[in-house]
Amino acid sequence: ACLSSLHDSEHKHRKRVILKAFSREALQNYIPVMSEEIRAGVRGWLEGAPRVLVYPEMKRIMFGIAMRILLGFEPAQTNRGTQEQLIEAFEEMIRNLFSLPIDVPFSGLYRGLKARNVIHAKIEENIRKKMAKRDTSDQFKDVLQLLIEHSQKDDEPLRLQELKESATELLFGGHETTASTATSLVMFLGLHPEVVRKVRKELQEQGLLSSDAQENKHITKEDRKST
Questions:
Q1: Between the CA atoms of 167, 96, 181 and 19, what dihedral angle is there, to the nearest 10 degrees?
Q2: Is the pLDDT reported for residue 201 higher than 50?
Q3: Where is the composition biased (Basic and acidic residues) (predicted)?
């Protein structure tokens, strides 16, 4: 079953499997992916309209990060078009999460299940791609890869539907709350320019700031207004 429906020892074991992907070493491996996704998002802000709606943009960025870090999607699988399709499906599923159990066309449950199937189809595509890779010993393992290996342990049958449900739970847990937190961060940074300068300095010292002068320029209220 998916993580939320497990109990006792199986829940603890599955949780330990997932926590391997959040060790200190694992988090350090995520930095390049996170930087790439964030830079792409900020670049889009600079090239786009003069006003940025931060929360929707943060949801898109965090969804892309979650798809790559938690589920191991390749960059080509998380282009903007695919992201928008999946985000729309994900939000439709969330909106109808607690609908009345009436599965008829145009009902909340019907729309929610239809949206879930879109997400599951994309996740299944990635699961099958991962299963086709025999040797992953030298590769960094995302959460989905760890869950796949857990399901295959001791020659247990691979439970595809359970993997898809667990992957969807990971997206649910790592998307909305993170986007909300990141939006608050942007708001407070906008209110405290002295903190922005300290953050910029620390990023430069750690080699995490882009070498692109356009991305590194100080964005004042006149340059870009965030809402």
A1: -20
A2: yes
A3: 214-227
Segment 206-209 long-range contacts (CB within 8 Å, at least 24 positions apart): 208/31, 208/35
pLDDT tens across 132-171, in order?
876 556 566 788 887 777 767 656 655 788 788 888 888 8
Q: What is the pTM of this model?
A: 0.75
Whether the Cβ atoms of residue 130 and residue 70 lie closer than 8 Å to each other: no
Give the up-direction half-sphere exposure of residue 198: CA atoms within 13 A in the CB hemisphere.
5
Distance CA 198, CA 217 (A): 15
**Domains in the chain: ranges and CATH:** 3-206 (1.10.630.10)
Q: Which helix (H) or strand (E) holds 226?
A: strand 225-226
- Which are the contacts of 151, defined by CB distance < 8 A and separation ≥ 6? 157, 158, 159, 162, 163
CA dihedral for 131, 15, 61, 220, sign (positive or negative): negative
Average pLDDT, the chain: 79
Q: Dihedrals φ, ψ of 157, to 5°? A: -65, 140
Q: What is the pLDDT averaged over residues 187-191?
A: 93
Give the tokens for residue 86. Answer: 């999946």
Q: Report the amino acid identity of residue 14.
A: R
Pair 202, 158: CB distance under 8 Å: no
